């Protein structure tokens, strides 16, 4: 495997991503629907942040909004500070210089995220052309290096293959190789393992962690799978109905959740060990974005709710170093312990 | 790029196609009511004359024998001699086919040139005024008879503005193109309408594809995304549509040729049907069928070149 040239050049100069009050709404037929509501978080250089939640919690839209990729008619406000610039306010040309270059993104389903009619070589090449000054021959060499780096066997012989000629896991590796073409400092990964077999899942997560290590990237990993979070993330932000309801170090959150939703999520994950216990599920379903409950959005499904929860939406507030929660009764939740 | 195995397989498929064309051509002509002799000579022929003439033309042989003779002649390049004008059919078709082919080719090119940019505008500005205007215009264009479009274009651009000739075919290639411009435009309207509608839908679909998001996430220029990722994928389904549409276009050429007085196969076909001129009808049907199957071959190969999955 060859090293990435910029590995040294950029060592130690990672950037922090600071997201403040990120709000994305979709104006469909007159009534705007807010999919992401005043979301704020930071990602330090080299850190892996997990963005966790059920389908429809706004985690994928949040990720897309960071690069202004939320689909029309989406409208995104707030700020996404990256290396001193607000991505949301950048002109198109400057935005393009960040996309795929400083910040890259990979998607859930490589079968649909790779263009079916272009060879792998073409799809890596166009990124290299956009972001480097390498000659055609050097780009080909580089493309082989990248496929090599993500663990595609006999990479040189696969350059002219089309996506459908790869297996699912290999296809996801190809997508990661394409994303790495611009030597990103931050990788946005939207459920990168959801479409894969469990064994392959493991390999891909290991690959991402390994690349983080070697390339000094930070990663935002969107997932609904707490197992994946435990395995890969440093910090976690739990999303519910478009808002972050709890953040903190992975170990701390798993040990002592302060939000009833986080607590519920943890209770619904099977754990190892000899003691068998029933799996719990969170009653009810997440609210429709078009008909949000009053007060705390989680109150209809919450066993800790009191009158205030119906009326007042709790703000996300720090309660301990490195931890935040948006719950009126988080102390009671913490004291209740894991279900 | 093109997969050689696919090309070979596709070419082999042409053999049964051609056999089928030969059978159908032969049968269709003999199913036409009436016979060539009475069509030419009217009522004033004797039975003896009829028998003699039939023997001369081979029409007294059993059908199967006639068919094998027909195939034998076609394969040796002999399409027979016109009953009516008494010249070899291949020479007659050789004179009349080129104008029709040039007309069809020009209409196809014009149609694509009109449809592709408009489909993009309509798709990108979906459900806004420009989309509605483009679609509305083509809807009207599509519902107007071809001869009417031809007459309108003639009146405006030839009769009034005098930019183009009112008819004919010209002598040199450049002259042909000049003479055939308005007729091509006439035919292109319906092709463009069909293609535009299909392409617009395809572009809207492709714009929603995740690989377009991925292309954006890679920081590519909008132009590169539109051409390499959107147009190329959207064209795949439209190219498949192109084959049958061009086939229909050849049919439409018959009418357009009469409006613009072009000496193409359309007029020839009608005349020979009236005259029960079997060899000419046969020859024409055969050559048009071959042309159409070659067009299908071409669109299939283009589609395979655009989409590697087709060739698998």
From TrEMBL, chain A:
CDD domains: ABC_NikE_OppD_transporters (cd03257). It holds the Pfam family ABC_tran. It comes from the Bacteria. InterPro entries: AAA+_ATPase (IPR003593), ABC_Ni/Peptide_Import (IPR050388), ABC_transporter-like_ATP-bd (IPR003439), ABC_transporter-like_CS (IPR017871), Oligopep_ABC_C (IPR013563), P-loop_NTPase (IPR027417). One of its GO terms (cellular component) is plasma membrane. Keywords: ATP-binding, Cell membrane, Membrane, Nucleotide-binding, Transport. Gene3D superfamilies: P-loop containing nucleotide triphosphate hydrolases. GO terms for molecular function: ATP binding; ATP hydrolysis activity. GO terms for biological process: peptide transport; transmembrane transport. It is found in: Cell inner membrane. Residues 17-266 form the ABC transporter domain. It is a peripheral membrane protein. Belongs to the ABC transporter superfamily. This is Peptide/nickel transport system ATP-binding protein/oligopeptide transport system ATP-binding protein. It comes from Faunimonas pinastri.
From TrEMBL, chain B:
Its main location: membrane. It is a multi-pass membrane protein. It is found in: Cell membrane. InterPro entries: BPD_transp_1_N, MetI-like, MetI-like_sf. GO terms for biological process: transmembrane transport. Keywords: Cell membrane, Membrane, Transmembrane, Transmembrane helix, Transport. Residues 97-303 form the ABC transmembrane type-1 domain. One of its GO terms (cellular component) is plasma membrane. The chain crosses the membrane at residues 12-32, 101-124, 136-157, 177-196, 235-260, 280-302. Belongs to the binding-protein-dependent transport system permease family. This is Peptide/nickel transport system permease protein. It comes from Faunimonas pinastri.
